[in-house]
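At this stage, I wrote out one protein's amino acid sequence and its C-alpha cells, and that material follows here:
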Amino acid sequence: MSKYTTYQPCKRPGGIGNIMSLVLNCVRYAIAAGASITLPLIEKRGQDLTALKNGVQEPMSYFFDDAFFRGVMALNCPQMTVLEDISQIREFGNAHVTDSLRPSELHADNGRLDMHTSEFQHALSGWLNFEPSLHHPAIIRLSLGLFEWPISEESVEFYATFGKLLRFREDVHQLANDILRTIQRQSSDNGRFLGAHLRTEADIKGLWIDYNDQRDAYFAKALSMTFKTIYLASGDLIDSARLKTEAAKRNIKVLTKRDLLSRANLRKLTSMTWDQQGLVDYLVLKNSTFFMGSSPSSFAFALAYSRHLNIADESYPFPEDSLSKIIGEDVNFFRDGMWPVQG
C-alpha cells in the first residue's frame, strides 16, 4: 500500500468524452505520484441537458467494466493498489485528508507542472505540509481540468494503449454488436455506412455549429462516398427526424439504434440512462466505414482519435483523415490532452 492515495470523484459533469479524460488523467497522475487509487465516481447527468448537475454519483460500473479495469491495472501496474473507496485504506483512521489539489497549479522547478509532469512526485511532496508514511498516509483529492495531462510527453506506444484501461460495460457491447449485425444483414452495400454524430441539443444551441451546417456536411460526404445508409447518433429527437426526412429525398436511409435493435434488446436499451445509451452509439460509430462529427464535441473528437490510430499512413492530417472528419474549428486542447479510447 502506498503512503499516498488519490481520490477523484469526477464531479465535473459531462458526457462520455469528458469522463474518459478525467478518469484516465486521474490514473496517470496517480502513476506519476506512485500512489494508490480509488475507483472513480461518476456524476450522473439529468435527462435535461440544460441542467447537467443533479448531485447523484454513480460507481465506475455506471459506464465501464470495473473488473476489467482492475485486471489490467493488476497486470500492468502490480505495485499500485486499486481500492473500492477510501475507507479501505489500511490506516484510514490515521490518514490525513488534504485540500483539493489541482495538479496543473503546482509549479515545477522550470515552469508549470502540467508541462513538466516528470516532476509531479517531487512537486507533490513539496505541496504537502507533512511527511506521509504507511501508518499515517495522505489522501489526496484531485481536482482535474479536462484534457489536462500533456500527452505529447508520452511515447507513441503508451499514448496509443493507455485508453484501453477503459472498456465499456458488457451490456453496452452486446447492444452495439446487435446493431452492427443488423446493419450488415440488411445492407445492400456490403455493410458500408456513414456514422454521424448530430450535436444540436438544447445546451449548445446558438453556441456550436448549427443543424444546417452539420446536415449539409454529412449529406455531402454521404453523396461523395456513395453511402446509402447513415447511422445517426443524436440526443435531439426532433432534429433526428428532420434529418431522416431530408435524407430520404436524396435516397439516403438514416437509421438510429432504436431502428436496428431487436424487441428484447430495445427494452434493455430503454432501461438505460441517456448517457449509457450514448455508449452504444460510440461503439457503433467507432465501427462505421467513415465517421463525421462536429467541434468542439469531446464525444466526436474521442471517436475520431480512436479511429485515427488505425491509419498506417501518418501523412493524413487530423481532424480529417481517411476514416473520419470533424467539421468546425480544430481545438488545440483536444490535440494536446485527449487519450484515444476504444471502449
Notes: The two ends are 29 Å apart (CA to CA).
